Amino acid sequence: VQLVESGGGLVQTGGSLRLSCAASGFTIGVIIMKWYRQPPGKERELVASISSTGETVEYADSVKGRFTASRDNAKNTIYLQMNNLKPEDTAVYYCSPWWGAWGQGTQVTVSA
After folding, report:
1. Beta carbons within 10 angstroms of residue 69's beta carbon
2. Which of 38, 58, 69, 105 could cross-link 94 (Cys pair, CB 3.0–4.6 Å)?
3. How many CB atoms lie within 10 A of CB 82?
């Protein structure tokens, strides 16, 4: 099982980023996938959970209306579109299948 997150970077408040998570070693097509983040000095928290078809997505209250999770099962990849970013979104972002496997994450830093 391998998960490779990408797309992070440094942006200003109000900016946008699109994260990708490419999975290998298993097929995501029938699996609930999740996005998590770990802010500096804090515990990892759930950001979004996307159903196997992508039709149902649940978001943390802190990102509702700003983040959009999606998936391309044919590419074995999920995405997180992040708009109107805020400094409190600064964190390392991870994707994971529902049972909890982890990649190296991708750093998102939002400057004030």
Report:
1. 25
2. 105
3. 26
pLDDT in tens, 43-77: 999 999 999 999 999 999 999 999 999 999 999 99
Segment 17-36 mean pLDDT? 96
The b-or-e profile of 38-63 (16+ CB within 10 A means b, else e) is eeeeeeeeebbbbeeeeeeeebeeeb
Structure tokens at 29: 């097509």
**What Å distances lie between residue 77 and 25, 33, 39, 74, 94, CA to CA?**
12, 10, 23, 8, 13
* DSSP secondary structure letter of residue 31: S
Question: Average pLDDT, stretch 20-28?
Answer: 95
